[in-house]
């Protein structure tokens, strides 16, 4: 269900703008649709009131928890969609939530399980937002990052519709909506036109164009320096720093050349570098760097003036862990 279709349906049932806003707010907060005090002035039209149970059931079926997997750095939810496909959402520390935007992904990053099977289908805007409504039934959500399964730029209309609803009726501050991309130029074209201005995360992973192309095989062939320039322009326009994502893989992108490259590209930029040590994935030969080497890389970048955070993984599309629940489940279905 696209959000626009839902709005049209509410209007066809007689909803005035105030009714529409109230029902959407109730849904996005994870409440029953007719929650809140009933007064003469906010009474719903009869047809709309009568349709609420059916609507409630349809919205509830957009995203259901199939299983929960608590971990040290967040709880992964395997979320079942109405057609029984599944995606992952992650309840992050500090009231964050990571949502998926596609079933599968066409970018095929070599360190990511989601990219292994390619793109299976797009999520519609209702399914993206339903992950937030679902999570809010479990706990508070004050930040949403679009870094789960899928490349948001490959489903941009639905993602923008979801961001615009979450930044208005969803009561989330714009800077707490984080749109992530591997560097699709369409994102940079659309951002300035958006009513809700999200923060931006860019998957960098290497400062060397050739290595980056090998790690992210079907990402746009944009030079890392150009990507950083585009990011910087949005950071200045939006007032939020760009969050660069870097999956740290031993012997691949953790060498001196890359550290020098990061300093060269990011010194003086309005940016945060998120370093995420690679998480082991069955069937992939990459290695996770030792904790002390990863910490030393972060310290050295810090000393060179690059604000660097060493993250553990939860919710980052780049952690290689994303997609594993779904993949494991698919494997079990075949044995
Ligand atoms: Fe797609 Fe993100 Fe996985 Fe790359 S890391 S394949 S962009 S889901």
TrEMBL record:
Its cofactor is [4Fe-4S] cluster. The keyword Metal-binding applies. GO terms for biological process: rRNA base methylation; tRNA methylation. One of its GO terms (molecular function) is RNA methyltransferase activity. The keyword Hydrolase does not apply. It is found in: Cytoplasm. It comes from the Bacteria. InterPro entries: Aldolase_TIM, Methyltransferase_A, rRNA_lsu_MTrfase_RlmN/Cfr, rSAM, rSAM_sf. Pfam families: Radical_SAM. One of its GO terms (cellular component) is cytoplasm. Residues 91-317 form the Radical SAM core domain. Keywords: 4Fe-4S, Cytoplasm, Disulfide bond, Iron, Iron-sulfur, Metal-binding, Methyltransferase, S-adenosyl-L-methionine, Transferase. Transmembrane segments: none annotated. Belongs to the radical SAM superfamily. RlmN family. This is Radical SAM domain protein. It comes from Thauera aminoaromatica.
């Amino acid at each position: 269900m696209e959000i626009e279709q839902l709005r049209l349906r509410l209007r066809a049932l007689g909803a005035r703008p105030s009714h529409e806003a109230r029902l959407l707010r109730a849904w996005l907060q994870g409440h029953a649709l007719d929650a809140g005090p009933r007064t003469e002035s906010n009474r719903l039209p009869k047809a709309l009131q009568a349709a609420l149970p059916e609507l409630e059931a349809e919205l509830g079926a957009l995203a259901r928890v199939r299983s929960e997997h608590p971990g040290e750095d967040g709880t992964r939810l395997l979320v079942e969609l109405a057609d029984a496909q599944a995606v992952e959402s992650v309840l992050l520390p500090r009231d964050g939530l990571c949502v998926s935007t596609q079933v599968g992904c066409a970018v095929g990053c070599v360190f990511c399980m989601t990219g292994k099977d390619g793109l299976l289908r797009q999520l519609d805007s209702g399914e993206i937002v339903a992950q937030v409504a679902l999570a809010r039934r479990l706990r508070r959500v004050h930040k949403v990052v679009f870094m789960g399964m899928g490349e948001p730029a490959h489903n941009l209309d639905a993602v923008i519709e979801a961001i615009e609803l979450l930044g208005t009726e969803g009561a989330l501050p714009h800077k707490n909506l984080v749109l992530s991309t591997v560097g699709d130029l369409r994102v940079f074209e659309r951002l300035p036109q958006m009513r809700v201005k999200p923060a931006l995360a860019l998957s960098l992973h290497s400062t060397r164009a050739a290595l980056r192309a090998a790690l992210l095989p079907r990402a746009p062939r944009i030079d890392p320096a150009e990507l950083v320039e585009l990011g910087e322009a949005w950071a200045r326009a939006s007032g939020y720093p760009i969050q660069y994502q870097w999956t740290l893989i031993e012997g691949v992108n953790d060498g001196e050349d890359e550290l020098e490259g990061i300093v060269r590209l990011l010194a003086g930029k309005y940016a945060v570098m998120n370093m995420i040590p690679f998480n082991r994935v069955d069937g992939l030969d990459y290695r996770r760097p030792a904790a002390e080497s990863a910490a030393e890389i972060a310290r050295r970048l810090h000393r060179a003036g690059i604000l660097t955070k060493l993250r553990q993984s939860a919710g980052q599309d780049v952690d290689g862990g994303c997609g594993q629940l779904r993949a494991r489940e698919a494997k079990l279905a075949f044995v």
